[in-house]
């Protein structure tokens, strides 16, 4: 999808555009994420997001990271630090408790589906064990330098949609394993790009799609979006 800023949409029976616009709006899928410091305030955090978005519900709401930190106020992502200047983790809130609060959002009608983000295979397994409402999605980093094959297969086996964030790289693990955080100059990928007359970015995005993962690349440059989006 190519984003163009619009501030006003005009519909009219005479224009014969109401049905088409209705279909477009119905296809919009909005995902929200619960921040670390709000694990003990799940409903309040979700309602705050809905108020800011001027919506009645979200299509999907995810636990952003599998860690609870000290509460710093609804709507803020400031991280509280302890006396050692380290992240102040709240050990009184378990991931199971957070998940059951997420499940309540579904019964309250505030969200249609719930999911997890940045959960490894063991945390995903645990979530399945204690969940009444199974996570619909697990969103995690995945790209050629950090492939997560076991996690992708585990999610597929248990009916969880594997979603690849940062599909173009960027993890610290890249540098540790490959000496680089970018694979744009990777000889194998450059060879495939030349063979199929595509860019390395398109090759990588398509590789992830063929693994049955949803990819969510991000860019602030409209030219890059136009160039890389039509992959194959």
From TrEMBL:
Family stated for the protein in its record:
Belongs to the aldo/keto reductase family.
Q: What lineage is this protein's organism placed in?
A: Eukaryota, Viridiplantae, Streptophyta, Embryophyta, Tracheophyta
Residues that coordinate or bind substrate: 64
| Keyword terms | NADP, Oxidoreductase
In Swiss-Prot or TrEMBL terms, this protein is called NADP-dependent oxidoreductase domain-containing protein
Q: Is-annotated flag, keyword Lyase?
A: no
| Active-site residues (renumbered) | 15
This entry's Gene Ontology molecular function terms read:
oxidoreductase activity, acting on the CH-OH group of donors, NAD or NADP as acceptor
- Name the SUPFAM superfamilies on file: NAD(P)-linked oxidoreductase
Reply yes or no: does the keyword Repeat apply: no
Q: Name one Pfam family in it.
A: Aldo_ket_red
């Amino acid at each position: 999808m190519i984003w163009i800023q619009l501030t006003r949409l005009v519909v009219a029976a005479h224009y014969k555009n109401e049905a088409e616009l209705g279909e477009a709006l119905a296809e919009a899928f909005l995902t929200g994420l619960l921040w670390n410091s709000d694990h003990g305030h799940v409903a309040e955090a979700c309602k705050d997001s809905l108020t800011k978005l001027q919506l009645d519900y979200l299509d999907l709401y995810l636990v952003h990271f599998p860690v609870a930190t000290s509460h710093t106020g609804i709507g803020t992502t400031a991280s509280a630090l302890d006396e050692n200047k380290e992240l102040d983790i709240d050990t009184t809130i378990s991931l199971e408790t957070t998940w059951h609060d997420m499940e309540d959002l579904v019964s309250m009608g505030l969200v249609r589906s719930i999911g997890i983000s940045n959960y490894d295979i063991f945390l995903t397994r645990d979530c399945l064990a204690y969940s009444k409402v199974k996570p619909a999605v697990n969103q995690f980093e995945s790209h050629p330098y950090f492939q997560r094959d076991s996690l992708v297969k585990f999610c597929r086996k248990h009916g969880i949609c594997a979603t690849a964030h940062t599909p173009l790289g960027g993890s610290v693990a890249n540098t540790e394993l490959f000496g680089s955080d970018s694979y744009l100059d990777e000889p194998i990928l450059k060879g495939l790009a030349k063979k199929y007359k595509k860019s390395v970015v398109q090759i990588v995005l398509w590789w992830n799609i063929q693994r049955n993962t949803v990819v969510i690349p991000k860019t602030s440059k409209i030219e890059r979006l136009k160039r890389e989006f039509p992959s194959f």
